[in-house]
Amino acid sequence: MEFVKVSEQEGVLEVRLNRPELRNAFNPKMILEITKVFKDLVRRKDLRAVILRGEGKSFCAGADLLWMKEIVKYTFAKNKKDAGVLFDMFQAVASTPHPVVSVVHGAAFGGALGLIACSDIVIAEKNTSFGFSEVKLGIAPAVISHFVLKKSTLGQCTPAMITGKTFQSNEAQAMGLVHHVAADETELVSLLNLVLNQFGEAGPEAVRETKSLLHKVQNQTLARAKALTTQVIAKRRVSKEGQEGLMGFLEKSTPSWKTQWKVRT
User: Fold this and answer.
1) Which CATH superfamily is domain 4-198 in?
2) SS3 letters for the chain?
3) Torsion angles phi and psi, residue 10, rounded to 5
4) Structural domain boundaries of the chain?
5) 180-182/121-125 β-pairing
């Protein structure tokens, strides 16, 4: 792939946005590459976690300038089709069965906040700059709004989305878009390892099943929620992994899935 770098180590897949000279700004090809990488993960049962990060000085600066120059010439129909492709990229990240951990530094603007909203856990350096900058261009953070509102609330994110203001990691954390704020790169690596090793303690099937359930159960009727949740817990209790975990707890033995990862930079 040209604009996305993928590597794997001990059951952890790392996806790096790889246009550092342009602060990892999106263009159509990069969007398709990200979509393909995350769609292909559906078939992977051996992974424990996915890390998403950016090469160079920033996580992602949003849309590429050359792409924006082309968008100006698009018809309404072509713009709608183009936006649909972008939506599909975010959906591919959001629907990944494995936990997605985004590591954010430097800057995250526009569509970058869509990637962040689609991640399960977000770790950001304290001085990272964020912004829903679309309104400053006379457009709207429309495609990402669906995903942002799954993580934040209308009251929390509306001021930032309608003003286009720049804000820092602590405010992004208050919005629910960031979960851990690191003082510097050293702490960023430490927090990433902490999160990964938390997944190393957990049954991989249980993690995937829990993520899937959480996406399904919200906003369900009481009857549907009861049906979904009781089905999942019963299935987990009789599963091979569930049996191993329960017996391990009772007998004080270590489950086969327990893993501790080394430091990642």
Assistant:
1) 2-enoyl-CoA Hydratase; Chain A, domain 1 (3.90.226.10)
2) CCCEEEEEECCEEEEEECCHHHCCCECHHHHHHHHHHHHHHHHCCCCCEEEEEECCCCCECCECHHHHHHHCCCCHHHHHHHHHHHHHHHHHHHCCCCCEEEEECCEEECCHHHHHHHCCEEEEECCCEEECHHHHHCCCCHHHHHHHHHHCCHHHHHHHHHHCCEEEHHHHHHHCCCCEEECCHHHHHHHHHHHHHHHHHCCHHHHHHHHHHHHHHCCCCHHHHHHHHHHHHHHHHHCHHHHHHHHHHHHCCCCCCCCCCCCCC
3) 50, 45
4) 4-198, 203-251
5) parallel
Give the separation between CA 117 and CA 93, rounded to whole angstroms.
10
Structure confidence by residue, pLDDT tens digits, 81-121: 999 999 999 999 999 999 999 999 999 999 999 999 999 99
**pLDDT, tens digit (0-9, with 9 covering 90-100), for 43-88:** 898 999 999 999 999 999 998 888 888 888 999 999 999 999 999 9
Angle subtended by helix axes 28-40 and 76-94, to nearest 10:
30
The count of other CB atoms within 10 Å of the CB of residue 189 is 16
Residue 171, by phi and psi: left (phi above 0), alpha (psi -120 to 50) or beta? alpha
Q: In angstroms, how far is CA 247 from the centroid of its own chain?
A: 33
Q: How confident is the model at residue 259, as a pLDDT?
A: 87
Rounded distance between C-alpha atoms, residue 99 and residue 96, angstroms: 7
pTM over 0.90: yes
Task: Read off the pLDDT of each residue in 211-235 and give the average, rounded to a whole number.
Answer: 95
Model pLDDT, residue 263: 61
